[in-house]
Amino acid sequence: MNDTAFYPIGTPGQPWGDAEKARWLSRQTRLRSYADEVQAAIEPLRARFDVVEYGRLDYAPDTYPLFAIRNRAWRGDLPCVLVTGGVHGYETSGVHGALRFVERHAADYAERVNLLVAPCVSPWAYERIHRWNRDAVDPNRSFRENSPAPESAALMQLVAPLRDRVLVHVDLHETTDTDESEFRPALAARNGEAFEPGEIPDGFYVVGDSDNPQPAFQQAIVAAVARVTHIAPADRNGEIIGSPVVAPGVINYPVKKLGLCAGVTDARYVTTTEVYPDSPRASAEQCNAAQAAAVCAAIDFALAH
Q1: What angle do CA 239, 182, 135 make, to 5 degrees?
Q2: Which secondary structure element, helix H or strand E, spans residue 194, and what is its range?
């Protein structure tokens, strides 16, 4: 291992203890406002949708209310669609793509599905533009029993009554340049492992469930998003972020085994979206539009099949 490239917290080869986590936390600063950018965007939606507070994060001295948005024509005989964003708080279009979907497209599905949208699962991380929560825990590896992440636990509690009724779950994410420059090195340091450099894909792709891959569903989403922004090509090894490309823009993970948000229900149709906001070929507007297009395509496919 090249120690000169090691993350500036911790000792190479040794997992972090409480002292290292405290030092990491001391380096985190608020860079944007959940109240001003997310809660303020939710407020106007109350005129057309039900907005529920499904939990509250107590990260003293701050507290963060957690909101979910539901359509008012909720019926027991309709399938449920779950949309989640901001599980990784730094992935901006996950949050604002979810809100864009509600604002511009959710009404199109009234009386056809029950919609439940949690646009910002990790507000502390949203404000600090970070992948982890305050305890240096990745919420998107924590969707499991006795979760160490309160963000994940709150969402699981919200979804639990609907777990068997969800037909579609779309979890909105980004892959960014900082994954390689900050977050993967930090992960390796936290775990006491060597950092192995990787390659950031340029473009949109989706991650299906390797235990329930649904290839036609995944490809329908990619086809719809291709009209909005470009699709990530496979690298020279035929992979995206180390996983084999099974179709253009499609890879698979064992989502439940990994504790990913995409495994929080037993939905037939599940996908994790990944846009690339750092591409010179994509704007923030395109990224938000791509996320909303992915949600629409997912619902459309499920309803047609």
Answers
A1: 110
A2: none
In b/e form, how buried is each residue of 119-148, taking b as 16+ CB within 10 angstroms?
bbbbbbbbbbbbbbbbebbbbbbbbbeebe
Beta bridge partners of 115: 81
Instruction: Break the chain down into helix, strand, coil percent, rounded to 5.
Output: 40, 20, 40
Count of CB atoms within 10 A of residue 194's CB? 14
Structure tokens at 106: 């959710």
CATH of the domain spanning 3-304, picked from 3.40.630.10, 3.30.70.330, 3.30.70.20, 3.40.50.1820: 3.40.630.10
DSSP state of 11: -
Residue type, 49: F
CA pair distance 108, 209, nearest whole angstrom: 27
Closest CA to 149 of 138, 160, 158: 138
Distance of CA 269 to the CA centre of its chain: 16
How many alpha carbons lie under 13 Å from residue 219 in its C-beta half-sphere?
7
Give the pLDDT means over successive 10-residue stretches in the chain (305 positions): 68 96 98 98 98 97 97 93 98 98 96 97 98 98 98 98 96 97 96 94 98 98 98 97 97 98 98 98 97 98 98
Question: How many residues belong to the chain?
Answer: 305
DSSP state of 83: E
Half-sphere exposure of 40 (CA within 13 A, CB side): 6
Which pLDDT score is estimated for 226? Answer: 98
Angle at 108 between CA 52 and CA 162, to 5 degrees: 40
- Single pTM value for the model: 0.97
